[in-house]
Amino acid sequence: MFDVVVIGSGQAGLAAAYYLGKSKLKYLVVDKNSAIGDSWRQRYDSLKLFTPRIYSSLPGLSLHGEINGLPSKVEIADYLTTYREKHAIPVQLETDVYSLAAMENGFLIETSKGRISSKNIVVATGPFQTPYIPSFHDKIQHEIVQLHSSSYRNKKQLRPGNVLLIGAGNSGAQIAAELADDFDVYVSTSGKLAFKPLFFMGKSIFYYYNLFGLLDAGLESKRGKWLKRQPEQIYGLEMKKLISEKKIFEDGKSMKVDNIIWATGFRQDFSWIDIPEVFNDFNQINHKNGVSNRHGLYFVGLPWLSSRGSALLGWVKNDAYHVVNHILQPPREQ
Fold first, then answer.
1. Within 10 A of 179 (CB to CB), how many other CB atoms are there?
2. What is the reported pLDDT for 334?
3. Nearest-CA neighbor of 30 among 83, 88, 91?
4. Separation of alpha carbons 323 and 122, rounded Å
5. Residues 83, 15: Cα–Cα separation, whole Å
6. Residue 332: what pLDDT?
7. pLDDT at position 224, please?
8. Residues of the chain under the 70 pLDDT cut
9. What pLDDT, on the 0 to 100 scale, is given for residue 177?
10. Over the chain, what HEC string results?
11. Cα(45)–Cα(149) distance, rounded to whole angstroms?
């Protein structure tokens, strides 16, 4: 039996493993992918982070390169591979997790490579779990190319004509800007787009977020509650210029389209966790800063787990440190 099993080898799982590696605990990281960093490699080709290198590192290893430059997806994937090697993190790849159940003295994980038992579990499967596409997508004419943003790689996947992007978060905005030179691009959005510059007065906007404590703002703080009410921010004014030159698809209008890209986000899927008390009536996780109400079960890497920065590469270490520190605490006397 392991002391800790971390499910997921993305940045959150590796950050948790880094702190576990400083302890005497026997631990293992499991992941369904065939290589570290694959969750980044599988995203669209032109993807770059909005956070510069100085704010895109995990504890114990800095990203190489110009500190204010924006790293590409391949750079991050390779960095995570190097990170695992540098810290000699034990990872079992190509392991699908089918279920997680509680036992008297811990947990039992059913996987594609057999059963694994552990006293503690850290779930680090990330925010991008199950792509969401509205159910009516299968009623759309078959000749129209349909892709979720998670399946989009580059413009070669599209047929000639126009593109309708449904959803205007950061992925949708970045893909729209990329396609604007070669296609007529239309954007469908349910609300007003809120743009922020990537840099201001020579510094990353994340420098100011960090300076004013916006990324560490807790869920229950006044600042955190205010931030949660704000519309999703789209980073990059160059995107604003490109997108503003295209038409916005409004309710009640119709048009003929050749390609649809569903930038409609993801849904969390924890149906494999067979521990009912971990979920509330709305099927949300019962936890406080990543520590669930089931002793020994923890979560890292999810949006707003403890703060605004919980799911960001440069800030995920805070929650990882917190949950590992909680695991290391001696049990309280009854």
1. 22
2. 41
3. 91
4. 8
5. 10
6. 57
7. 81
8. 191, 238-254, 330-334
9. 86
10. CEEEEEECCCHHHHHHHHHHCCCCCCEEEECCCCCCCHHHHCCCCCCECCCCHHHCCECCECCCCCCCCCCEHHHHHHHHHHHHHHCCCCEECCCCEEEEEEECCEEEEEECCEEEEEEEEEECCCCCCEECCCHHHHHCCCCCEEEECCCCCCHHHCCCCEEEEECCCHHHHHHHHHHCCCCEEEEECCCCCEEECCEECCEEHHHHHHHCCCCCCECCCHHHHHHHHCCCEEECHHHHHHHHCCCEECCCCCCCCCEEEECCCEECCCCCEECHHHECCCCCECEECCEECCCCEEECCCCCCCECCCCCCCCHHHHHHHHHHHHHCCCCCC
11. 11
CB-side neighbour CA atoms (13 Å) of 271: 4
Q: Are 80 and 10 spatial neighbours (Cβ–Cβ below 8 Å)?
A: yes
Cα–Cα distance, 11 to 125 (Å, whole number): 10
Quick: pLDDT tens for 36-76.
999 999 999 999 999 999 999 999 999 999 999 999 999 99
d(CA 97, CA 118): 14
pTM for the structure as a whole: 0.90
Beta bridge partner(s), residue 199: 204
Instruction: Return the ∠ at Cα 308 (arms to 303 and 314), rounded to 5°.
Output: 85
Two tokens at 205? 């906007």
- The letter for the amino acid at 211 is L
| pLDDT at residue number 148 | 95
Measured distance CA(21)–CA(333) in Å, rounded:
27
Strand 248-249 relative to strand 259-262, pairing:
unpaired
How far is C-alpha 95 from the geometric centre of its chain's CA atoms?
Answer: 20
For residue 103, which phi and psi values (nearest 5 degrees)?
-120, 175
